[in-house]
Amino acid sequence: MQIKKTAAYALTLAVLLSTPLVQAQDDPCFAAFNQLRENYANSTVQLTLVGADRTAVVPYVLLHAGKHVGDFDVLQHLNGEIRGYALKGESGFDYNQDRALTGPLSWHPTLVWHRVFHKDKPLRSYSCILTGRTRLAGQRVTLLRLVPKDSMRYSYLIALDDVHKMPVELSLLTPEGTVSSRMTVLGVLPIEGDKAKFPFDNVTLDTFKTPENKVPSYVHTWPELTMPGEFELIDKGELKVNDVDSEFQTFSDGITTFRVYRSQRSQVLFPALNDGSLTVYRKAGINNEYSVVGELPLKLAEYVLQAVR
């Protein structure tokens, strides 16, 4: 009898581990996470955020307008020049009000906040774990941990306000369990929908609108790359940096996005660099040099280039 129970338990566990994420959304942890996403999508608020990593602590103010009033986000640094970025739908751009400049959207450590809490962004092959309750930034919160089943991507530790079911904190954890970066909400100011206006004109937005070009089906991932199944090829192109021609492919699992550059071989002086959640990993092959750049742990970057010799 005991042997039968053990076998049944093993079979049940195997089924649970192989069940697609879509079917796992009914558990209490995913239900709480989906409710948070829904509430955030429908809210119009001004958040005072503090971002921190191993090197710096930076305060921001974020104007978030829900879909019913325009679906946009405008983030501004509270230190130094008045600068930040604006997002509307899938398009975005950087701005510097002091210098009267706008430009293409660059990397910002806070962009992951928008992707994790965007209700339409897929969350592929993650488990959700309720890790407890505590008090944070003056709020009673429930802690949710989203853990990748491949053990190579970032985990996300989320503090959920028990009263309003809104995000209070988001931490990125490396596969080794260390905190790569953290964003904490210190102040919330609700805004009436008719008072939330996108502070930039449509001409500026159209200038930097993200093209909706899909990678043709005949284009495949370079055979020398080792790509986890959760990632898909979403973009490709060519560019020249310091008179060196490079081609690139961009991959995403919906939350994490990174690029792999391929160029002529050179001397790799700094194989790995890290800035908060941003990683740059370089490796020289026989004929080419490869660089993995994006919001991914070093462990995942190394895995992608493991077949390059």
Structural class: alpha+beta
The residue fraction in helices comes out at 10-25%
The count of DSSP E runs of length 2 or more, i.e. the number of strands, is 17
What characteristic shape results from the CA principal axes? globular
- Gyration radius, rounded: 21 Å
Low-confidence stretches: 1-23
Summarize the structure.
By secondary structure, this protein is α+β, with helices and mostly antiparallel strands. The chain has helices at residues 2-18, 21-24, 28-41, 111-116, 202-207, 298-304; strands spanning 44-53, 57-65, 72-77, 83-88, 91-96, 101-104, 126-136, 139-148, 155-161, 167-173, 179-190, 232-241, 244-252, 257-264, 272-275, 278-284, 288-294.
Q: What attributes characterize this protein structure?
A:
six-stranded antiparallel beta sheet, globular, eleven-stranded antiparallel beta sheet, disordered N terminus, 309 residues, alpha+beta, 43% strand
